[in-house]
């Protein structure tokens, strides 16, 4: 029998979430962001599942784009950070990738290149996050130079929000105002909204939006709203109990003896550890579902295993299904955001952190 740990990917849920992103913004096209192996879900499988719905895909590098083209995806693919080396420009033109330009060196390289075909360019404005993009004062000249170039076949304005998911909206309001006034000045087609802005900031929806995490069914919002509640989890990470320890009170469990039993306990050993991408920082009490029933992790996560207190689930035994996040047996569900909160992280790191040794199943 194979090691029981798998990541089961529900492509119908992915399509449902994509349609929800479109419903949130009925006047926008949604660029499906599938960078980082579709947030751990398998980029090619997700692209194929969304191909008939999404007009374009977003990735972080030409290597990620090539993997889609080589797999037969013909839709436009946006390089969200543009190129890292001007030598990529030939392939960008040749394979018809859409390219972000966020810095002066990229602008000069693009204008100076000899290209076999013109490129669709998404110009990035730094509206206040101070990561990538041109300053608002510099943008008009950048825009004019690109618009005048025979290397450019289409131009779009984008920016990225630092805080669209938060209740405190001061920085978001400032970024939105900066981005909107720049867009107005240039009469530009815009793409501003990530998942949180797609879900709860309709005022910045544009001709395009760029949802990522919401497609995978994890809400990025600080609080929920009616739309985010309709998201369906796409990945279910599940395994099985491979051993059970019957312990007296006062016995340590696992590395460092971090957890010590306070009562006679049944401790289950689960085949899943940090060598699979499960967060080693998970504290005692981090929820898992044992046959659909909530139990708590106890003791440190090991490389290939973790331990869970199943004292209160007497029916659980070797072979019982354990759900680390996603959908469990008997209609049970464990929200990845809850696991992330225990681990003091976000759903994005848990999903992208699932390592290649965990087989992805597409039922
Ligand atoms: C990753 C990314 C997104 C998607 O962000 P989510 O929070 O996952 O929706 C959108 N735009 C850019 C530029 C990105 O890099």
Automatic annotation (TrEMBL):
BP terms from Gene Ontology: D-alanine biosynthetic process
> What terms describe the molecular function in GO for this protein?
alanine racemase activity; pyridoxal phosphate binding
InterPro entries referenced in this protein's UniProt entry, alphabetically: Ala_racemase, Ala_racemase/Decarboxylase_C, Ala_racemase_C, Ala_racemase_N, Ala_racemase_pyridoxalP-BS, PLP-binding_barrel
Keywords from the UniProt entry: Isomerase, Pyridoxal phosphate
Q: Which residues form the active site?
A: 35, 255
Report the residue ranges that make up the Alanine racemase C-terminal domain in this protein.
Answer: 234-363
Domain of life where this protein originates: Bacteria
A Gene Ontology cellular component where this protein is annotated is: cytosol
Q: EC number(s) in its UniProt entry?
A: 5.1.1.1
Which reactions appear under catalytic activity for this entry? L-alanine = D-alanine
Q: Which pathway does it serve? A: Amino-acid biosynthesis; D-alanine biosynthesis; D-alanine from L-alanine: step 1/1
Which top EC class is named for this enzyme in its record? isomerase
Q: Where does substrate bind?
A: 131, 303
What is one Pfam family matched by this protein?
Answer: Ala_racemase_N
- Co-factor requirement: pyridoxal 5'-phosphate
Q: Which residues carry this modification: N6-(pyridoxal phosphate)lysine?
A: 35
Q: Which NCBIfam families match?
A: alr
Q: Which HAMAP family match?
A: Ala_racemase (MF_01201)
Q: Which family does it belong to?
A: Belongs to the alanine racemase family.
Q: What does this protein do?
A: Catalyzes the interconversion of L-alanine and D-alanine. May also act on other amino acids.
Supply the name of the protein.
Answer: Alanine racemase
Q: Which organism is it from?
A: Larsenimonas rhizosphaerae
Report the gene name: alr
